[in-house]
Amino acid sequence: MSTLEIKNLEVTYGSGAGAVPAVRGVDLTVAAGQKLGIAGESGCGKSTLALALLRLLPASARLSGEILLDGEDVLTMKWGRLRSVRWAGASIVFQGAMHSLNAVHRIGDQIAEPLLVHGQATPGAARRRVGELLEQVGLPAARADAYPHELSGGQRQRVMIAMALACDPQLIVADEPTTALDVMIQAQILRLIEELVAEKSISLLMISHDLAVLSDTCDRLAVMYAGRVVEEGPAAEVFAAASHPYAAALSSAFPRIGDAASRRAPRGLPGDPPDPAALPTGCTFHPRCPVAEAVCAEEDQVLRVAGAGRRAACVRVGAEPVPLPAPSRIAGAGSAKSSPSGD
Ligand code: ADP
Ligand code: MG
Predict the structure, then answer these.
(1) Any idea which ligand is nearest the CA of 94?
(2) Which among 35, 221, 273, 320 could disulfide-bond with 204, CB atoms 3.0 to 4.6 Å apart, if both were Cys?
(3) Do the beta carbons of residue 270 and residue 333 sit within 8 Å?
């Protein structure tokens, strides 16, 4: 178990005129053993945040703020320390297992690699551990000899999870772990992640564009928009009664797990999230907001208390609950867009 505290995290890609502020002042905490879900459309900065947690961003990214793993700042860690924290302290499960696995190596060798690199096992012990790990993720130990192409998409994602578990991490970051899978398999993989983190008291930070999936799996939810957290609170409450109009739109956008059409355009929301290099003035959500007021184009909104254990960044917080118009009355409702980053 491990506590993750993200404090005023800023991530900007590139520099000068071409600067892309992808994450803009994020504060989040994942308590030991807790499961935090992060939702938001494509381009809102979710993967940038996930990669920042283990300093896996490209060299063009500039970071500031703090990422405290049990009080130790990942951003200022020496390289050797960072290497031991990766896998053993925290590990990441990505979306596309096919791209993350090496096609020419047997999966057993790939799962064993972090164990060997971290000196956690002799080759013989690593082989036994690989068998155990495969069984934990619901695959026969004998599959260790298989190559990635001999497995289905769901089986490959199970292998990725086995790899993430190999060094007994205290935190798992799962970035859209099931997006590439079909609906039935998605549900199985999510259940597996849920069971494993509960059994081992691992803290979980799970990213998805699908708020319904996250509210099923996680204790708390954070909704990101244009690089910021715009709402955060207990998962069931945020999902059932969002305070921020963007979170409200997302929670009505995903009626079914894996529904490809609804994933592209939250119901009733016209347009796309803004380009981080050209953010709107005021509240960055105001051009799409169905309940925007004149002030929203001018005043930037920061998170404020929106009930017990809840925060939201909307001028209406503390005023009346947000009455969203029926989707059919919003201009551009239902128009699907393609996902810019292909997820
Ligand atoms: P999400 O995971 O929510 O879809 P990302 O973190 O992938 O969002 O992207 C956030 C923003 O940062 C997007 O505008 C994206 O185009 C931009 N971005 C992501 N990676 C890079 C990069 N390596 N260089 C420049 N911009 C990037
Ligand atoms: Mg992403």
Answers:
(1) 2
(2) 35
(3) yes
> Ligand 1: distance of its center to the CA of 195 in Å?
31
Please give the domain boundaries of the chain with CATH numbers for all domains: 29-54+74-224 (3.40.50.300), 240-329 (no CATH)
Distance CA 267, CA 255 (A): 10
Q: Where are the beta strands (DSSP E) in 86-144?
A: 90-93
User: Is the CB of 341 within 6 Å of ligand 1?
Assistant: yes
**Counting ligands in written order, which one lies closest to the CA of residue 174?**
2
4-61 pLDDT tens trace: 999 999 999 996 678 999 999 999 999 999 999 999 999 999 999 999 999 999 999 9
Is the minimum distance from the CB of 42 to ligand 1 under 6 angstroms?
A: yes
- Torsion sign over Cα 267, 228, 212, 256: positive
Tell me the residues surrounding ligand 2 (ion) with CB < 5 Å.
46-47
